[in-house]
């Protein structure tokens, strides 16, 4: 019995060392060499300082900025440590209330905009961390952003187009606009 117990303890310690220490160090080291940007969190930098990540959305509420997809994470929006959806189905009154509040906020920020609101501006994704919106969601916000910045809407549309990514490999997913990159590009305009 002692021999079996000793073998079990040795095996637990050995597997802990292999799978809990050696494997993560090796994989992390390889990732750092092969994919250095991704291994460091896909950080976006401005003037040598990190301003966000290309994988996690940011909370923008100023009318001068494009707003991303709503986040369902808690305690604050776009909390990477709390990645989750709201788990509210289409018949849940809480989802309907949240959508009404988001619609009201969009209309309050741009009362003259009578265009239909794209669904990704009023519903959170499964992760609650989406860094991108649809081109339709960006187009919906062009007027508000242009007025708030004193820019011609055509110029803002040019910046949106320059920050719109197509389908991956030409067939996967949908076209999308990286909100952080778009807002940084607008900040860079003179």
How does this structure look, described?
By secondary structure, the protein is mainly α. The protein folds into two domains: 2-36; 41-187, no CATH class. The protein has six helices and five strands, in the order H-H-E-E-H-E-H-H-E-E-H. It has helices at 2-34, 36-39, 93-109, 135-149, 153-162, 179-187, and strands at 43-46, 49-53, 132-133, 164-165, 176-178.
List the helices and strands and how they pair.
Blueprint: H1 2-34, H2 36-39, E1 43-46, E2 49-53, H3 93-109, E3 132-133, H4 135-149, H5 153-162, E4 164-165, E5 176-178, H6 179-187
Antiparallel strand pairs: 1-2, 3-5, 4-5
Question: What's the Cα radius of gyration?
Answer: 22 Å
Give the count of helical stretches: 6
Strand content: 5-15%
Number of strands: 5
How much helicity do the residues have?
40-55%
Separation of the first and last Cα atoms: 78 Å
Gross morphology is: elongated
Q: Mind summarizing the main beta sheet?
A: 3 strands, antiparallel
Any idea how many domains? Answer: 2
The whole-number mean of residue pLDDT values reads 90
Strand order of the largest sheet: 3-5-4
Helix-strand category: mainly alpha
- Give helix and strand order, one letter per element, not per position: HHEEHEHHEEH
Unreliably modeled segments = none
